[in-house]
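Let's study a protein:

===
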Amino acid sequence: MKVSKIYVAGNFTTTANELKVVNPFNKQLVATTFLAGKEELEQAIEKGLSVRRELKHLPLYKRYKILMQISNALQENKASLALLLSKESGKPMRYALGEIERASQSFLVAAEETKRIPNEYLALDWTASGKGKEGLVKYFPIGLIAGIAPFNFPLNLAVHKIAPAIATGNPIILKPARATPLSVLELAKIIDKTDLPKGAVSILPMNRVSGNQLVTDSRFSKLSFTGSPQVGWLMKSKAGKKRITLELGGNAGVLISKKADLERAVKKCLIGSFAYSGQVCIHVQRIYVESTVFDAFTKMMIQGTKQLKQGNPEDMDTDISSMIDENNAKRVASWVADAVADGAQILCGGKRQGTYFEPTILTHTKPEMNVCRLEIFGPVVTIEKVANFEEGIKAINASDYGLQAGVFTDSIQEINQSFDELEVGGVIHNDVPTFRVDHMPYGGIKNSGFGREGIKYAMRDMLEAKLLVKDS
């Protein structure tokens, strides 16, 4: 039986509380790891605080070297890491390999951004009182950081918290999802081989009771959380004076203009709707199509959806596989059944078998239905007709969420209009809202979150400005 030790204050260790990680596709045991308790968390906190000064004064070239070493090691171990990630999460191998690539890229970007940590010179003699003085603004590490990562991108979303922390000289304690802790514990082995001070990074799977201390403990200077809105906003209310970043997902919309390339739109929407069974914060959930191209687009989407290959996630040809667990698959089935009972029509899919839910297209939905109103986090997409482009923008905006939106059009006027009017954190032109590269600013408004991720932007929020005024 494979055993994966947790990483506490620079040491790999076990606890009395075992955590069994099961493959959601075949229910086989992947590995046994352990849950940290208050004792292990306290060790990690004390050690992280004790290395703050050392990290603060770690030269930038050493931070760069450490981050590049991690990036390169992820590339060297890509195949084995992707297989482990696929097993623990049920993610098809093509997407698991992509996630390892992105994690490596995230460390590479963080390494490069160590060269651009900001500083500023200020002339102060703009007024008479400033004569003979000048200012220097430098940015310093803020302190111990708490990171909480979700199951759906178990490695890369953890990296989006760990890499900026290392780059800015801050210690971090990362809590992975209990369903998917193994790939980030493998990352801990890579980090442990670098010259990073021991205790700068701890990886602690925990239950919610122990994990709540990451939120409430005043020794943490920042909390970075990726997860559900219900949990995230509650955390914000309990976080005290610490900085906080919340990435809370949404029910992302796509607008298909009559001036769009439909073949390209369908190809992109199939991936955005059903990659990793829709368990993506920026999964395509609501598609609005101008009436003159609605029938053609919908027909092509149905055809493409029916051609997706379902199967073992370890098979490179698999397009869609199981969801993370049966409870989530049952929840999706329930939401679809409720929508149908209220007048929605299933165009394809709609059936569940264990943890697998078929890729599903609905139409004739209503905005108040759960499949439209909430984040479904499953392989379900709605397609609805709109009279014109303006109506489509209004439909996308009629949501409590605002993370990203996709707009397919070949009209410069329409893309400029959508950028001005869509109430989201990012507008993606001629692609789906599922698009993300790891150095871009990423985050939403309304119920979708608070603050921005993306390596450079996360780094900025892990630094504190300090001003020196001196004689010139």
